[in-house]
Amino acid sequence: MNFTEALAELDGRRETRMIPDLSRILRLATLLDDPQVRYPTIHVTGTNGKGTAARVASELACAHGLTTGLYTSPHLLSVTERLSVCGQDIRKDEFAEEYGHLAPFLELVDADSEDRVTYFEALTALAYLWFADKPVGLAVFEVGMGGEWDATNLISSDIAVLTPIALDHPELGDTVTAVATEKAGIIKEGKIVVSREQDAEALAVIEARCDEMGAESWLEYRDWDVEERLQALGGQALRVQGRYATYDELFLPLFGEHAARNAGAALLAFEAFVGEALDADRTREAFAAVRWPGRMEVVARKPIVMLDGAHNPAGAEALSAALREAFTWTELHLVITISDGKDVEGIIAQLAPFADHVYAARNESERSGDVFPIVERFTARGTQVTTWDDVASALDAALSVAGEDDLILVTGSLYTVADARRALGSPS
Fold first, then answer.
1. R_g (Cα) of the chain, nearest Å
2. Residue 232: which residues within 8 A CB-CB, separation 6 or more?
3. What is residue 324's three-state secondary structure?
4. In the chain, which residues have pLDDT < 50?
5. Residue 302: how many CB atoms within 10 A of its CB?
6. Whole-number Å distance between alpha carbons of 254 and 384
7. What are phi and psi of 374, to 5 degrees?
8. Angle, to 10 degrees, between the axis of helix 280-288 and the axis of helix 50-63?
9. Which residues share a beta bridge with 236?
10. To which H or E segment does residue 69 belong?
11. H or E stretch covering 357
12. From CA 329, how far away is CA 290, in angstroms rounded?
């Protein structure tokens, strides 16, 4: 099986709905002799920022000499971005080889199940296998959606990390309590839980789950803190108070308080994993090495072109706060597409105060929302909107009129960011 064949088989499994059932991934793991329990794991969930926390935790482990696997989602341009070991994405030939190993087991489970193994379940099983085959000394898993019913939830979750929880995917529930209950499902018996600051509803659920499972809770502000943040060229300088030490002069090449605090949670997670203070120099090295494409990513200057995958009100609020804090501009050109089913009003309410010109488009995803709700809401606020058939055309239009001191922001969805990266010449 080559990479093209593996990708075609995987793409044929794209799920159209969330199936809250672990039976297929459990059966797969059993047939594969449970590769996911052959290495310790850090498990990260939350509504926004979980990818940042997972990536920083992986960088810290690698800087301290551990061969560390990282599994994240979604990808921007290639599925190979989702699986990496110490910064090296899985090669296409490795992907094909592992998928060829997995394929007969997928067929067995398909034949025995009412529903076929889904795209995400198959990819998660591949991650389980690949990390065991490398082998890794630690794997960091970001959940795909939720927690309890997520395909990643077969791992030991030696350390669970919960970034801020809010409403997002309607499949997870229509209250913060319901969403937090699903996400707190990654907390395992007797383990350590590192939590960002949460609203009262979410925190009540998390603390109750910790009590139920006999898990130890390390809560932001109570047990650890990002004590200082200073703006720096290309990012920010931090001091983090951990459980075993205080770490200063940490340069993080990401913007915004949300990124700093999610990075802090990752530091605490790795502290919990090793059970002692981290090496100060290696910790600084890890923070400085962090790269997270599509998350407040500056890809050009004069004018600044920024890509950010904010796709819900909480993400848009964090983006807005970081913009105010770290950037200046004369006019802001907003290129935006929002996926179907998202809170358009909530997202736009956060971004509208900045937008001088709006370019509403559809992206290439089948989940792309229509431009009409975007046009309607910005027009009601007195902002002129132009509409475009695709993100590339909208971005070209913004680039053609933006001045050197302007800022072009592409946001609303990671699918929108992916389209912009392709338009700007990033490899697919």
1. 21
2. 251
3. helix
4. 427-428
5. 10
6. 31
7. -70, -50
8. 130
9. 231, 252
10. strand 68-71
11. strand 357-361
12. 26
